[in-house]
Prior knowledge:
Layout: E1 2-7, E2 12-19, E3 22-24, E4 34-43, E5 45-47, H1 62-74, E6 77-82, H2 91-94, E7 101-104, E8 108-111, E9 121-124, H3 127-137, E10 141-145, H4 157-169, E11 173-178, H5 181-189, E12 194-197, H6 203-211, E13 215-217, H7 220-223, H8 227-231, H9 237-247, H10 249-259, E14 262-263, H11 275-284, H12 289-295, H13 298-304, E15 317-320, E16 336-339, E17 342-344
Parallel strand pairs: 1-4, 5-6, 6-7, 8-9, 8-10, 10-11, 11-12, 12-13, 13-14
Antiparallel strand pairs: 1-2, 2-3, 4-15, 15-16, 16-17
Helix pairs in contact: 3-4, 6-10, 11-12
This protein binds zinc ion.
Domain Amidohydrolase-related: 40-324
Protein name: Amidohydrolase
GO molecular function: hydrolase activity, acting on carbon-nitrogen (but not peptide) bonds
Amino acid sequence: xxxxxxxxxxxxxxxxxxxxxxxxxxxxxxxxxxxxxxxxxxxxxxxxxxxxxxxxxxxxxxxxxxxxxxxxxxxxxxxxxxxxxxxxxxxxxxxxxxxxxxxxxxxxxxxxxxxxxxxxxxxxxxxxxxxxxxxxxxxxxxxxxxxxxxxxxxxxxxxxxxxxxxxxxxxxxxxxxxxxxxxxxxxxxxxxxxxxxxxxxxxxxxxxxxxxxxxxxxxxxxxxxxxxxxxxxxxxxxxxxxxxxxxxxxxxxxxxxxxxxxxxxxxxxxxxxxxxxxxxxxxxxxxxxxxxxxxxxxxxxxxxxxxxxxxxxxxxxxxxxxxxxxxxxxxxxxxxxxxxxxxxxxxxx
Length: 349
Ligand SMILES: [Zn+2]
């Protein structure tokens, strides 16, 4: 299958071919179907923080997973990192070529000391063993809860460090939920790879995260819709904490990108297939269109180890009628979505 257009982020005019699940820039022998011409092409989009398949009680069902994954694909999101799911994703779904590529982290692990009670969380007494087991059984990632209530202590640093050391010793990576100043600090200082939410991420922590190639996933899409409601709540430390945490995200995203942190797009919320919302947040935070789009595409793919539109790369792409760097609104209206070398129906509307 042949596709021509302008490749992002380079801006080069290109002609490429999809051979099965691979990309090549060398015309293959034999007959070729042209899927599209003259589009603006990005590697398939990525949502690096999404939990498809769960109801409000945290119950995972295959049917719901398939449905919510289909919403991602329709929007051009061809790869997902799933930082926490309450049941293993069945092998048959992982192998389904119509579903996005998955990078799963297994159960979302909450040390019993935090007593979160959240339906998505799995309590554990032995966070180190559980984290290593999930990273091993999944795609080289585990996910831990570093803090929960704003007025309760975060995990002790010795415990977070023990998790990180054990997981890194096997070449795997750790993502951590952190939404308090103490939790974000302990996660960054102890070497967590991917900082999820990252409220109260300070400049000194950003420097440390950048120095070791860490990632920051603000998930502002999950929080911004809550702000109006929170403003109506009684005054007090909880309200201040909540509004302060959200208010700090745009600046933290901008400073983190400048410092060299991989700032990545994750939604952590319904509707599924809405990663463009996080691109819009990053644009509003002052990141350039190329950087903001990259956070949901080539930068995220690099970080997860999913090659994009390079020779031998994976055959996932999205095509747009106009340059999304100039008109980011077009990101919501892909003309062409290709997943694993197959054209899927583009989203309309
Ligand atoms: Zn989440």
